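@channel sequence for tomorrow's demo:
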Amino acid sequence: MKDKQMEEAAERFVGAIKNTETYKNYFEQLERIKKTPELFDRVNEFRQRNFEIQNTTQVNELFDKMGAFEKEYEKFRENPVVDDFLKAELAFCRMMQEINVFVTEELDFE
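structure tokens (generated this afternoon):
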């Protein structure tokens, strides 16, 4: 960033995000799941496949493909470490989306 004042404000903003319970929980769950690398690898595979299905599937096939995907990973999701991580990640992503929407609206950015 070229503007020192904006850089300092951005650093404070990141600090405020890191200070939220949502981020702290996400980071705690991330560290917890990383202690079992093979489990973390499977979570990353799950996330990648979920992303691909949602972004490459035609709308008329999405419901069926997501249903099959959820059934395939049903037992995997029952693992409390996996479930806790994915819930924490989702909460953090939603918080970041809300922040993005707020900033965009406040700046009249279309």
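heads up for whoever presents: The mean pLDDT is 94.
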